[in-house]
Amino acid sequence: MEVSNADRVVYPEDGFTKGDVVDHYRGVAARMLPYVSGRALTVERFPKGIGEKGFMQKNIPQHAPPDLIGRHEVDREEGGVTVYPVVDSEEGILFFANLGVITFHAPPSTLDHMDHPDWLIWDLDPPEGEADGVRRAAYALREVLDSFGIPTLPMTSGSKGYHLRTRINPRVGADVVSGVARGTAALAEAAHPDLMTLAFRKADRGDRVFVDWLRNTPLSTSVVPWSLRARAGAPVATPLTWDEVAKISPDGVHLPEAANRAVPTAWEDPQSFDVAAVRDEVEKMVDEAGIELEPFDRFRS
What we know:
five-stranded mixed β-sheet, 19% strand, 2 domains, DNA primase, PRIM domain, single chain, four-stranded antiparallel β-sheet, alpha+beta, 301 residues
């Protein structure tokens, strides 16, 4: 693929160019593909580099070649239709990189099972500059998940926090998946109330880490593993081992070295976990802990 404006500086503080960005995605495209293929993508574009204002794009670009980029239409509640792009090839990833896309975001469900996620995700969101706290939160949440036998794959977000992911069977609805995510997050909060919170409003969090369980509904999105982020240093959302969480900060892997990192063994072919098998146990533990989970509407919270 011919890269247009390859010498354009995209990361002004670091000198990385559009050509560097495309080269990164060329190096990681095969690893990224399983996390984007068959999903309705949202992309974050910075056509003039991250020094200028970028934008999130859900609708497919009009000039996207139909033989390379698929389309998925969703009727919006407020009217109209969103036509999401669907990428099923490494070439499709590079097409978007050449469009000025810095970051790829994907839902936890494929188009074949929109209401049945095949990933369970917790996003740990700390105040800016709180790497030690979010690291402790990651291990604390892992301890809760381990108690239910839920295996977790950690990754840097390339931003402030870590993500924990669990590969799951797409057999239960998003409401069940979200319930398990919320219930386990609430148990972690109850065990470490000075460290973690489920408070949606930033003003209510203080200096605690927000355990975001809201990434598990259809068309909610999370950053795709191996994606660049639009931050100084060109950090990359990178799969880690649990030993590496103790050593690598949430924005600690950068463009120059990311493509040369080995894929952690646990990430290579994760076995699918049966969320339904722990649903009742999670609910029981939440009840026994005296935790009340009220109906949640993120738009009113």
